[in-house]
Amino acid sequence: MVKANLTVISNFIFLGFTHYPKVKVIIFVLCLLMYLITLLGNIILISITVLDSYLHKPMYFFLSNLSFLDIWYTSSALTPMLANFVSGKNTISFSGCAVQMYLSLAMGSTECVLLSMMAYDRYVAICNPLRYPIIMNKSVCVQIAAGSWMTGCLTALVETMSVLRQSLCGNSIINHFTCEILAVLKLVCVDTSRIQLIMLVISVLLLPMPMLLICISYAFILSNILRISSVDGQRKAFSTCAAHLTVVVLFYGTALSMYLKPSAIDSQEIDKFIALVYAGLTPMLNLIIYSLWNKEVKTTVKKLLIRNPLCAFLIPSSK
């Protein structure tokens, strides 16, 4: 076995989108807009959910959890990239890279589990409305949310520790805009088959299995919708389900293409744009589709604007 020439790495350098100088500014503007919309929108959603007792329901409890983790998710992935673009520096410390990798993995993994639990909540609410308050009581909701967070945080800790404990070969250049685990793994100069096996097992548990649960839940929901006698009611219900499933397919689809692709396929440049979709675009779409399209949320926002007109400067009115 050839012994690798190992050096201690204290800082990493991001290549980011340096291969695309003509679109760097466009990418920066789009990412900034996605981040600001996600950040401000989710803060507003969490605030009105806490302030309005009418929204103290299981669905909005899960939406608040989703909003909270999406704030951290986009912040961990996009904020360093935006800051580096403004400052002109593309470096990050080893400890900073470890924190960024862990937060991105933890929030992404938690979202994978939480979205499936939210689909189950909708299944119970629509298909078993009379038993819904009993099945999805406060204690159960807290346990589901806590289980989602624990699963995401623990699996992220395992993956992060598995990669960063390995020996690096002195190459400190990460071909990405963030400390994405697959990009950092390419800097490891020892056999990574064990790490890849760990990541494969975790990816299977967190991606296709929750997605399967979501598909089963929505299959029962759609079956129940077909029994609605009102054509207008069916149309609205199908529209809502289609919007939810679009976000689900986009989030899980891009993550699946990243973490369950054959190791022989080298698509680092494509991976950067895929990462922008599931770390930037889908959190923003979560906010718009799960929350801003929601009739009860719109009603609450209007009530808040009527009570306090000054809020109109912060919250755009929904017509």
Strand content: under 5%
Low-confidence stretches: 1-6
> Gap between N and C termini, in Å?
68 Å
Helix content: over 70%
Largest sheet: 3 strands, mixed
Shape: globular
CATH fold descriptor: Rhopdopsin 7-helix transmembrane proteins
Q: How many domains in all?
A: 1
Mean pLDDT: 85
Question: Which CATH top level class fits?
Answer: Mainly Alpha
Explain how this protein is built:
This protein is mostly helical and 319 residues long. It has one domain (11-293): Rhodopsin 7-helix transmembrane proteins (Rhopdopsin 7-helix transmembrane proteins, Up-down Bundle). It has eleven helices and three strands. The protein has a three-stranded mixed beta sheet. It is globular. Mean pLDDT is 85; it is low at 1-6. Pfam families: 7tm_4.
Notable characteristics:
319 residues, mainly alpha, Rhopdopsin 7-helix transmembrane proteins, three-stranded mixed β-sheet, disordered N terminus, cell membrane, receptor, sensory transduction, olfaction
Short description:
By secondary structure, the chain is an all-alpha fold. 71% of the residues lie in helices and 3% in strands.
Please describe the topology of this protein.
Blueprint: E1 11-14, H1 24-51, H2 58-87, E2 91-93, H3 94-127, H4 132-135, H5 138-164, E3 173-174, H6 181-185, H7 193-206, H8 208-225, H9 231-259, H10 268-292, H11 295-307
Parallel strand pairs: 1-3
Antiparallel strand pairs: 1-2
Helix pairs in contact: 1-2, 1-10, 2-3, 2-10, 3-5, 3-8, 5-7, 7-8, 8-9, 9-10
